[in-house]
Amino acid sequence: MGEAGWSPTKPCENASAVACRVLAVTGLVEHILGHVSARTGPDGLLVRGRGPAERGLAFTVVDDVRQVSLDGTGTVPSGWKTPSELPIHTEIMRSRPEVTAVVHAHPPAVVAASVADLPWLPLTGAYDIPAARLAHDGIPVWPRSALIRRRDLAEEMTATLGDRPVVVLRGHGLVAVGTGDPAHAVAEAVTRAVAVDSLARTMLAVTATGAPLRPVPDEDIDELPDLGPAFTVTSMWRHLTTRAEHEGPGTPLRA
Ligand SMILES: [Zn+2]
């Protein structure tokens, strides 16, 4: 796994915990549902679970993030539990060795657009280049709304994800993945989730006017540059984490 470019000895509980706060402050998760994971090695991951004093994603502390193996076992404190949908994370990491972070969220706009069976088209161009590029290259939709708490369901969902960075779960939410150093991968997965949420909001707004959903022409897509990770991930992550710090509850990240 060394060639993947990340260090299995450098855990990133902080990034995973902060990511949960970011998802809450941006409205991509509500209340106590949603989770983020970061790979620690070929067979291990850090995942945001729930302790006996669970207060919801907005109030995530570093201790909510614990290391388990891909089969869900590990030495964890009594009362702390992995998410019931842990198979989302473990199955993707099993089938995609390059994936080092997974975000699962229930953004209301994504859920509404998926239930309406709206097509995930690049409706806008320079307005949101990451969203346009994601949609142009294809956002798959897993048609089932089941709670993904079994491996067979996670395998189905992972097959629909394929080699793409995001998958929409109809009537449920989305899954986004990141690659490379796990702390960067968490940021990358979150920014991808934010892009899909942005697109969903646009889809719903356009549909509400009664106008048809039409993709921007390929010639305009061709004029959208790849802005690179320093802009689309690092700068965006700095913005999102600063927002979480200023707009979030202000409770300490370390209990
Ligand atoms: Zn879920």
UniProtKB/TrEMBL annotation:
<dbReference type="GO" id="GO:0016832">
    <property type="term" value="F:aldehyde-lyase activity"/>
</dbReference>
<protein>
    <submittedName>
        <fullName>Class II aldolase/adducin family protein</fullName>
    </submittedName>
</protein>
<dbReference type="InterPro" id="IPR050197">
    <property type="entry name" value="Aldolase_class_II_sugar_metab"/>
</dbReference>
<dbReference type="GO" id="GO:0046872">
    <property type="term" value="F:metal ion binding"/>
</dbReference>
<dbReference type="InterPro" id="IPR036409">
    <property type="entry name" value="Aldolase_II/adducin_N_sf"/>
</dbReference>
<feature type="domain" description="Class II aldolase/adducin N-terminal">
    <location>
        <begin position="14"/>
        <end position="204"/>
    </location>
</feature>
<dbReference type="GO" id="GO:0019323">
    <property type="term" value="P:pentose catabolic process"/>
</dbReference>
<keyword id="KW-0479">Metal-binding</keyword>
<dbReference type="GO" id="GO:0005829">
    <property type="term" value="C:cytosol"/>
</dbReference>
<keyword id="KW-0456">Lyase</keyword>
<dbReference type="Pfam" id="PF00596">
    <property type="entry name" value="Aldolase_II"/>
</dbReference>
<dbReference type="InterPro" id="IPR001303">
    <property type="entry name" value="Aldolase_II/adducin_N"/>
</dbReference>
